[in-house]
Design brief:
- This protein is α/β, with parallel strands linked by helices and about 425 residues long.
- The longest helix is centred in the last third of the chain and has 21 residues.
- It has three domains: about 90 residues, no CATH class; about 200 residues, Spore Coat Polysaccharide Biosynthesis Protein SpsA, Chain A (Alpha-Beta Complex); about 90 residues, no CATH class.
- Helix 7 links the parallel strand 1 and strand 2.
- Helix 3 packs across helix 5 and helix 12 packs across helix 15.
- The chain has 15 helices and nine strands.
- The two termini are about 40 Å apart.
- Strands 1, 2, 3, 4, 5, 6, 7, 8 and 9 form a nine-stranded mixed β-sheet that branches.
- About 30% of the residues are buried.
């Protein structure tokens, strides 16, 4: 493709080392939507410090460049070398990482063999106190162009009403779950699912009539294991521009994702250490990545995520992984630190906390407002004793989870 060829020829000569130029090119290819054959880096070698600052200035907002610079000075890196490298790259401007996005021009005319074989799909929906929205979910499923599917609903609603499941035109299986437990619900539904593909969905979402087809077609076109549909919402952070094109996915959203059932046979079900907390889908997605599975971000399979204020996970925990529900509650949510500490070195965990905790002072609804996020970082300095108490409490609770170990059930082959 012309876009790929253009990027391959356009190595940045401003870097000192050839390795830095290769790393920069790899980054731009991935950011612009390259999905294909390797080779891929399995480890990274050190590059000149001045090249590192060039990469930062090219690809990140100036505030993060200053953040890294100050952090490195405070962590006793050589100050003269840091100042020299920082100053030498001062004229480098941030570039838009998706200016040369890869179009995949033949996708529109691609005739999917997988679609023509009409594999059986199991759509998994946990629900809790959202019958009004669940009925809209069922209406959208009735309108799907692709018809070869079953729907499995795990109902945790307090005022259980079986009548809501009557009269729909598709195969609908539902059962009552007394315990309010999201990951238990999804795991049980996956075990009962008859489909060769599992489509995870939320009970407060709306989709177009080509939603299922779009997932299957992308899975087939890219020979992928996972199709991660994009979720559009008016709450929280702004919608990323890379939601507009195909790329390797950097997340797995269990509210809108199609997976081969064999994925669960390979990596296991969801870890119940995340029950009533956050990042259970993120941890599962990382397991898939470490297992070498291909996860494609699919802009064609979009959903409108209503993020209603009642029911669902909102009734059991926080919207935000880094904001406690109570004044003296743990920050971040303990499952977040459990996740970080299980997979990353201690230094990386501390750096992640330094990046994420200060701006978490501001409520979730201000995530689109950058000045408010900066203000949150400043306020965190005034609240430092409280924040240290919250983080320490979260660290202790995460340690208990680590001692217990992961609660991951295996899915037996059939």
């Amino acid at each position: 493709m012309e876009a790929i060829e253009g990027l391959l020829m356009d190595r940045d000569s401003g870097y000192i080392s050839q390795l830095s130029r290769d790393y920069d090119l790899s980054w731009r290819l991935i950011q612009n939507g390259y999905v294909g054959e390797g080779p891929y880096y399995t480890c990274f070698e050190a590059v000149p410090l001045v090249d590192s600052y060039r990469f930062l200035r090219k690809n990140f907002h100036w505030a993060w460049v200053w953040y890294v610079f100050v952090l490195r000075l405070l962590s006793f890196h050589h100050p003269i070398k840091e100042v020299f490298a920082f100053w030498k790259q001062r004229k480098v401007k941030q570039q838009h990482s998706v200016q040369d996005r890869i179009a995949y021009d033949d996708y529109t005319t691609f005739q999917s063999p997988l679609l023509s074989h009409t594999p059986f799909i199991s759509i998994v929906i946990p629900t809790l106190n959202r019958y009004v929205y669940l009925q809209d979910v069922f209406k959208d499923l009735e309108q799907q162009a692709y018809k070869h599917f079953e729907v499995l609903v795990v109902d945790q609603t307090e005022a259980y009403d079986a009548a809501i499941y009557e009269g729909w035109s598709f195969e609908l299986i539902h059962w009552r779950q007394e315990e309010k437990a999201l990951w238990l619900a999804r795991n049980e539904a996956i075990k009962k699912a008859r489909g060769t593909y599992i489509l995870m969905y939320d009970d407060d979402s709306r989709v177009d009539s080509n939603w299922i087809e779009s997932h299957l077609k992308a899975l087939d076109y890219f020979n992928a294991d996972i199709s991660s549909g994009v979720s559009l919402s008016q709450e929280g952070a702004a919608i990323p521009i890379n939601y507009q094109f195909f790329r390797y996915s950097d997340q797995l959203d269990t509210g809108n994702v199609l997976l081969k059932k064999e994925v669960f046979q390979k990596v296991g079900l969801f870890d119940r250490q995340f029950e009533k907390q956050r990042m259970g889908d993120g941890e599962f997605g990382l397991r898939c990545y470490l297992a070498g599975l291909i996860n494609v971000s699919n802009p064609k399979a979009k959903r409108l995520h209503l993020k209603v204020g009642t029911g669902g996970l909102r009734a059991m925990g926080s919207w935000d992984a880094f904001r406690p529900k109570h004044f003296l509650g743990p920050r971040p949510i303990p499952s977040v630190l459990y996740f970080f500490r299980r997979y990353y070195a201690k230094q990386a965990v501390m750096l992640s906390l330094l990046k994420s905790v200060p701006i978490s002072i501001m409520p979730y609804r201000f995530k689109k407002n950058k000045p408010m996020m900066v203000l949150g970082g400043l306020i965190s300095l005034l609240l430092l004793p409280l924040i240290l108490f919250q983080v320490t409490r979260s660290w202790y609770m995460a340690s208990q989870k680590l001692k217990e170990g992961p609660k991951i059930e295996r899915l037996n082959d059939e």
